[in-house]
Amino acid sequence: LQGSKKEEILLQLRDSKSKNFYIVLQRRKNYIVNMAPKKNVTEEAFHAFKCEVERNSRYLVEQLLQKINKLEDENIKKIEEIEKKCKQIENQHKIEIEKINNDHYRDLQNLEQQNNENIQNLKRMFVDQKQNTNIINSDQRNSNIEISKPLFYANNKDPHPIEFLQNL
Fold first, then answer.
1. DSSP bridge partners of 23
2. Residue 122 domain-assigned (yes or no)
3. pLDDT tens-digit series, residues 48-94
4. Residue 13 lies in domain
5. How far apart are CA 117 and CA 57, in angstroms?
6. Looking at the domain assignment, is residue 90 inside a domain?
7. Which of 43, 86, 147, 153 could join 160 via S-S bond, C-beta 3.0 to 4.6 A?
8. Positions of E strands within 14-51
C-alpha cells in the first residue's frame, strides 16, 4: 500500500481460482496494486486494510448519525411549530365559542324578557280589564236611575231599590 493520504480503499475479489486481490487506491490517479495470493497476505497489509475499512465505516456511521440528528431536530422544530399553531387555533376557537355562547345567552334573556312583557300586556288586557269593567260598572251610576229616583232618596237616608240591587 503506497501513499499516506488514502481517500478510499476498495477490495475486490476477481476470481476465486486466481485468489488475487486488487486494491484500488484513489488519489489523483487510480493505481492498481497487485498483491500476493490470499495465503501470503502479510499481517501488516491486512491490519492496514482493516484499519482503513474501520475508519471509513466510522466516518460513514458518524455522517449517518449527524444526518439522523439533524432530521430529528428538524422534525422536533416542525412538531413545535405545529403545536403552536394548534394552540393558537384552539385559543381563537375558544374565544369564538365563548362569544357565540354569550350572544346566545343574551338572546335568550331578551326573548325571556319579551315573553314576560307580552304576558304582562295580556294580563293587563284581559284580566285587569275585566276587573276594571266590574269596578266601573259598579261605581258608575246610570243616568236613567238618577232621573227615575224620587227625591226622598236623595238625602242619603235610604238607598234607592235599583242602587241597592246594583250594589249586591
1. 11, 33
2. no
3. 888 899 988 999 999 999 999 999 999 999 999 999 999 999 999 99
4. 1-41
5. 88
6. no
7. 153
8. 21-26, 30-34
Q: Which helix (H) or strand (E) holds 31?
A: strand 30-34
Cβ neighbours for 167, distance < 8 A, ≥ 6 positions apart: 138, 159
The domain total for the chain is: 1
Rounded to an integer, what distance in angstroms lies between the CA atom of residue 32 and that of residue 34?
6
* Residues 6 or more apart whose Cβ sits within 8 Å of residue 56: 8, 9
Which amino acid type is present at position 68? Answer: I
Instruction: Specify if 24 maps to a domain.
Output: yes
In a domain, residue 158? The reply is no
Buried b (16+ CB within 10 A) or exposed e, 75-106: eeeeeeeeeeeeeeeeeeeeeeeeeeeeeeee
Single-letter amino acid code for the residue at 156: N
Spatial distance between the Cα atoms of 121 and 58, rounded to a whole number of angstroms:
93
